[in-house]
Amino acid sequence: MSAVVKPVLAPASPAAVNxxxxxxxxxxxxxxxxxxxxxxxxRKAYRYADQAHLGQKRSSGEPYITHPIAVAAQCAxxxxxxxxxxxxxxxxxxxxxxxxKSDLVDRFGASVAELVDGLTKxxxxxxxxxxxxxxxxxxxxxxxxxRDVRVILIKxxxxxxxxxxxxxxxxxxxxxxxxxxxxxxAPIANxxxxxxxxxxLQDLSFRYLLPWRYKVLEKxxxxxRNRRRDxxxxxxxxxxxxxxxxxxxxxxxxxxxxxxxIYKKMDNKHLSFAQVTDIYGMRLIVPSxxxxxxxxxxxHQLYKPVPGRFKDHIAIAKLxxxxxxxxxxxxxxxxxxxxxxxxxxxxVVAESxxxxxxxxxxxxxxxxxxxxxxxxxxxSLLDIQDETHDATEFWDHVKVDLFPDAVYVFTPKxxxxxxxxxxxxxxxxxxxxxxxxxxxxxxxxxxxxxxxxTELRNGDVIEVITxxxxxxxxxxxxxxxxxxxxxxxRHHLKTMAQTESRELGEKLLTQAMRAEGIETLPPAExxxxxxxxxxxxxxxxxxxxxxxxxxxLGKRVASIVAKRLVGLLSELGQKPDALLLSRERFTAHETxxxxxxxxxxxxxxxxxxxxxxxxxxxxxxxxxxxxxxxLVVHTDQCGVGQRLKQKDSERFIAVEWAEEPTRAFEVAxxxxxxxxxxxxxxxASAITSAEADITHVLMADEVxxxxxxxxxxxxxxxxxAHLETVLGNLRRVPSVLQAQRVVSGVGREA
Length: 750
Description:
Layout: H1 14-29, H2 36-52, H3 66-77, H4 82-89, H5 93-96, H6 101-108, H7 110-123, H8 132-145, H9 149-164, H10 174-191, H11 195-209, H12 211-246, E1 251-256, H13 259-269, E2 280-286, H14 289-302, E3 304-305, E4 311-312, E5 325-330, E6 336-343, H15 344-352, H16 356-359, H17 368-372, H18 376-388, H19 391-402, E7 406-410, E8 416-420, H20 425-432, H21 434-438, E9 440-445, E10 448-450, E11 462-466, H22 483-515, H23 529-539, H24 544-552, H25 558-571, H26 578-586, E12 596-599, E13 607-609, E14 621-626, E15 630-635, H27 639-647, E16 652-657, E17 665-674, H28 679-689, E18 693-699, E19 708-717, H29 720-731, E20 736-742, E21 748-749
Parallel strand pairs: 2-6, 12-16, 13-15
Antiparallel strand pairs: 1-2, 3-5, 4-5, 5-6, 7-8, 9-10, 9-11, 14-15, 14-16, 17-19, 17-20, 18-19, 20-21
Helix pairs in contact: 1-3, 2-4, 3-4, 3-9, 4-7, 4-9, 6-7, 7-9, 8-10, 9-10, 9-11, 10-11, 11-12, 12-14, 18-19, 20-22, 22-24, 22-25, 23-25, 28-29
């Protein structure tokens, strides 16, 4: 055997061996649905598990193997397949006995190994159930991380047996394990429709979490049960008689509220035990759906219904597949009794939920029972199993319906976070904190560096790497999924734009003031405060910064504001500098109107480069102060710019290239080529060989068979000289007939 087995410190007692063997015999008695081959596989797994756990004891002193056998027995109750039962027997082997995944693959196959591995991973999750929201996240996390529904079912069976034997554990552990069960595992059982398990886990958790309250309530329910036994027998006889008269076949069962549900009702509604009137109920199993509604009518003729206490879960089923009619009636002696009407298939679904998938798996797909089983949701699960027998696909379908749009990931400090499906590293960064998001420069998933646009998956551990200065990239808006990330990015970019526009506006207003003979812009303090107040009333701006932003965005003309400001300054006794005024007027012909602005490509929102002509360093350029769009730079040959100048010349200012531009600029080029094999590749190679990066390619949509066609490229160049180099490379390609830059309004130019 390749497994690592713990050394035996002392031989096991004959009694212990007999106990383990007896419990396994009880398990085998439940496996008749598997067939001889399946039972043999389970027996083989038992022997392997028994040897692996040899020498280990539970807190009760029993051999440890009794626990895996009990878990497997619960799974057998749900009619799970042989693989699941083998995994149940071996679920602690990897964690406690040194058995490796490869050992399990060799002995029992990859599917069993994956199930055991999934269970081991779930065991390693550390739960902090103090916060309700966190508990909900862990519930979802547990479901999301499991690749196979059988992992969850085995886990629930494991937890159920641990809770049943909680009395043997140290009292110090009761509170933590019971809270965890109540907040995480019981709701999962409910979510999957495992009603019986759900009720049992709730009651067991209540028993060990609040033992004193449990005992008091248990005594009260026992006394009430003894008092009302005759009453419930009378109700049952009357109901049986009523259905006998109606000629209906019906099976009647008594049903009692769990102690935990009684306690929660008393706690939430601040009731005494005597005020909880619907402790008892009855369940009616009838042949068909129509009979459910007929039974409702019979009962309402027998006893008066309580207004507002009727629920139709057949027409509107619960998400987990549960279906029943519920009605509360006033029985003899004024006691409220809840009645539930359902069919046999509905009952299977109500008690076993997702496990009904295996309970009914042997049914013919077209059989009447299978067709009526549960809701469309549960039926679709059965259909998947009938078609594919793929447990993974089955579970994916369950998860999609339970949690349609969520993935669950960890921070490096093991905090769990729910993100929408398709969320990226950037979304995660903004979910942690907006300041983290703004400063994000890189990300790691499970310790490996990944692009920021990488989508997150369940169970990923995300680490965000940040820079000192915040600098969100506008390109992030193209892939982020969450509204929070999108709004934070936009807000930061808008704030940046405001800052840059204010700086540009201040520069333009200062230049316009120089043209009026005032060297510097007066400060907004001291004796100038009333003057600025008058100017703001004149312009309609709220603050000085808002006015400067408006000038930078082109909403206000700097020269007009400057003239008004000079007038206000003269009222304060400050006259224009005659020498400065003469110098500015002497050089005015060298500029368009308000002095020159330097551009180098580092500007963001405040300066835009027109896409109609795509200026590059070396081009003669002009600037247009658009109405609300900031400064737009055109080439002086651009047709669009020339038309704007004819209509709105006062909004044009002189702009110049800085000596050292900070980035490459996009340029549009059209290349006419003779059609042939590999032409596009050769043209693209000629562009890239000149160190230009292609950003966009468009091929003319022309009829095939044409001798020549146009290829339109947008690529980046450093300056006009670099562009000439690229065009030279293109013209040397044999297939190229013509290569020209595209400038709007003047056709093509070299």
